[in-house]
Q: What sequence folds into this?
């Protein structure tokens, strides 16, 4: 075994790229859940974002338009879920699962003629001097713009949820939709917006997967990333800052275990790939054991259907 | 007037029934796939085989497939559903469907099953596989010549005999032309996860591998290789020609079509029997994809020669003297491996510095 062949710098750089799709999707879902809606369709919205972003980028030659279109399409399919659950009062769990299956199927259909094509390249930024600094240069200044965007988005969501009136209203809707309704807030409209935002984030995460991380389109390429994003929301106990930790831990363990294997470490990779899931289960158990903390964290109206009383 | 109407209606019903009866006569052939047909790798080639059946036998057959079937009890449900809905021949195209195929086959003695890459058979269960290791020997030969860092990265899926055999075969062929060569093996524990496969390729490249081989199904490692300078790889299961001439310099192609057509024809003729098929380059089940100009001409020539000799039987990919990894003797000078040992291979050959996960 030769651990010295693992470079910590490249490890950090690659774990950030590996984690960004799930981070983006988790941030979107976090906002959705904060508004009291449980959308299990993250995987479906991600893959729609992946295929639509890919098609747009290939057609126009611009990765930026690809990201934009991926986000728009992610939001568009999330509207199916939104209408079903907010206006037709459908069960959120069932509708979300349905959205996942619908998304996977639709994406396969849309992407049929796009397998085996290379998308336009989306390069890392290069700031003269700064990007060439040893260690810091590659870790801080050497990523593609979407990674910086995902970090800025985390901060933005944290600021919105905790420091603005709009965020307070959104959280109020998620904690008690009846009270928020009584105060005159448009519960359904706010939730529709939150769901659309969640869909856009998931779509963006999917587009990052098909345009940067893998760069290609393949059927079923999200391979469960949407479910990991859902787990990260719980892991993060609905706090944006912790979502970064959760996503980087997931991505980090995946990348690290592959590197350890390549270096010849004799731990069964089956155990290593289990670790992120084990961590989530442990966090869930800790949270469930403390009723007070749990009630502080999880939105009280999460997953409940809202009937507007007149 | 009424009489005519009745007659016409009767005729229509009769025609309809005849049509239905005709449809019943069609042989229904089912496929279960581990991934999507659009993976451009393993499942893609099985689906090409399915299409070949439809093309060759036309309206005598009707084929259906279910994609992304997990290697769990889910596969039993899918196969049971197929058997109940009148499928008489079912192809299960991944190794770990094995026990599930056996379970379902017991319940439906009239339905014939074909299991790819497995080793359990019954009166109504055949197995078939390709001698992928012959292809591995050819690309191992090319890899040994082409590596500059003397490090070859290998993205493996699951530690099953088929995968281990491929690693051994590629290693022996690479070692034969380049005694300095080293293999780094990463187990992805998946057949299809583009993100993870790309990460695995990246980890291997970061650690000095300049030739990457894969035994997973997607083309994601190819995309990853393309991002780096001077890295080459090989199409796996399918040609992956869209990445030629570089990073894809050649490929191992699984050509299932002739076998699938022959087995379906046997069903139509009533001559289907439980068999164990293991075809290689000779029979055309394993093909070597076009070698691009990125490979020096003399290496292309010697690789082709090796492929020809493997096909003619003049050379066997496992020819002694070969020791097992622990140093114990396996094959004596000139001895070749028997199919039984190869089918159950669970050890590395001497020289590979890694352990097989259990």
A:
């Amino acid at each position: 075994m030769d651990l010295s062949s693992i470079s910590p710098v490249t490890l950090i750089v690659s774990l950030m790229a590996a984690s960004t799709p799930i981070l983006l999707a988790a941030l979107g879902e976090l906002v959705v859940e904060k508004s009291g809606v449980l959308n299990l369709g993250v995987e479906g919205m991600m893959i729609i974002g992946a295929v639509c972003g890919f098609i747009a980028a290939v057609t126009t030659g611009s990765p930026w338009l690809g990201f934009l279109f991926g986000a728009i399409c992610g939001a568009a399919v999330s509207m199916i879920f939104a209408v079903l659950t907010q206006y037709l009062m459908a069960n959120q769990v069932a509708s979300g699962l349905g959205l996942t299956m619908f998304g996977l199927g639709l994406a396969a259909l849309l992407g049929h003629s796009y397998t085996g094509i290379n998308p336009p390249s989306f390069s890392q930024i290069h700031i003269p001097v700064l990007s060439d600094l040893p260690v810091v240069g590659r870790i801080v200044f050497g990523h593609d713009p979407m990674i910086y965007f995902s970090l800025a988005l985390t901060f933005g969501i944290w600021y919105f949820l905790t420091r603005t009136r709009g965020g307070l209203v959104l959280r109020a809707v998620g904690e008690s939709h009846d009270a928020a309704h009584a105060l005159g807030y448009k519960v359904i409209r706010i939730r529709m917006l939150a769901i659309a935002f969640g869909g856009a984030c998931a779509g963006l995460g999917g587009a990052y997967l098909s345009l940067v991380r893998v760069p290609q389109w393949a059927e079923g390429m999200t391979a469960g990333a949407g479910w990991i994003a859902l787990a990260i929301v719980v892991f993060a106990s609905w706090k944006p800052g912790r979502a970064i930790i959760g996503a980087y831990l997931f991505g980090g363990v995946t990348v690290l275990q592959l590197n350890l294997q390549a270096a010849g470490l004799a731990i069964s990779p089956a155990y290593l790939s289990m670790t992120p899931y084990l961590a989530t289960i442990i966090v869930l158990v800790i949270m469930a054991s403390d009723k007070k903390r749990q009630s502080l964290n999880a939105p009280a109206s999460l997953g409940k259907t809202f009937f507007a009383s007149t | 007037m009424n009489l005519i109407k009745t007659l016409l209606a009767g005729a229509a019903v009769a025609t309809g029934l005849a049509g239905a009866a005709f449809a019943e006569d069609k042989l229904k052939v089912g496929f279960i796939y581990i991934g999507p047909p659009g993976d451009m790798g393993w499942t893609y080639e099985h689906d090409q085989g399915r299409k070949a059946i439809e093309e060759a036998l036309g309206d005598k057959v009707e084929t259906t497939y279910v994609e992304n079937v997990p290697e769990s009890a889910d596969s039993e449900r899918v196969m049971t559903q197929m058997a109940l809905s009148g499928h008489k021949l079912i192809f299960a195209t991944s190794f770990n469907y094995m026990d599930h195929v056996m379970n379902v086959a017991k319940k439906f003695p009239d339905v014939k099953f074909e299991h790819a890459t497995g080793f359990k058979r019954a009166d109504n269960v055949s197995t078939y596989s390709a001698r992928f290791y012959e292809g591995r020997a050819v690309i191992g030969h090319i890899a040994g010549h082409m590596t500059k860092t003397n490090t070859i990265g290998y993205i493996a899926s699951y530690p099953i005999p088929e995968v281990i055999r491929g690693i051994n075969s590629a290693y022996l062929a690479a070692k034969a032309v380049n005694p300095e060569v080293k293999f780094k093996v990463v187990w992805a524990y998946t057949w299809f996860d583009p993100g993870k496969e790309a990460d695995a390729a990246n980890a291997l490249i970061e650690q000095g591998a300049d030739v990457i081989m894969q035994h997973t199904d997607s083309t994601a490692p190819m995309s990853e290789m393309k991002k780096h300078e001077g890295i080459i790889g090989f199409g796996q299961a399918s040609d992956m020609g869209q990445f030629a001439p570089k990073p894809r310099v050649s490929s191992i192609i699984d050509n299932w079509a002739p076998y699938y057509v022959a087995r379906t024809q046997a069903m139509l003729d009533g001559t289907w029997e439980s068999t164990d098929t293991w075809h290689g380059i000779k029979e055309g089940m394993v093909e070597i994809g076009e070698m691009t100009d990125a490979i020096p001409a003399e290496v292309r020539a010697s690789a082709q020669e090796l492929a020809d000799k493997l096909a003619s039987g003049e050379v066997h990919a496992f020819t002694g003297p070969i020791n097992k990894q622990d140093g114990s003797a396996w094959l004596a000078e000139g001895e070749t491996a028997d199919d039984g040992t190869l089918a159950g291979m669970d050890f590395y050959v001497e020289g590979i510095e890694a352990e097989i996960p259990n």
Observations:
- Residues 53 and 70 of chain A are 4 Å apart (CA to CA).
- Chain A is about 70% helix and 0% strand.
- The first helix of chain A runs from residue 8 to 34.
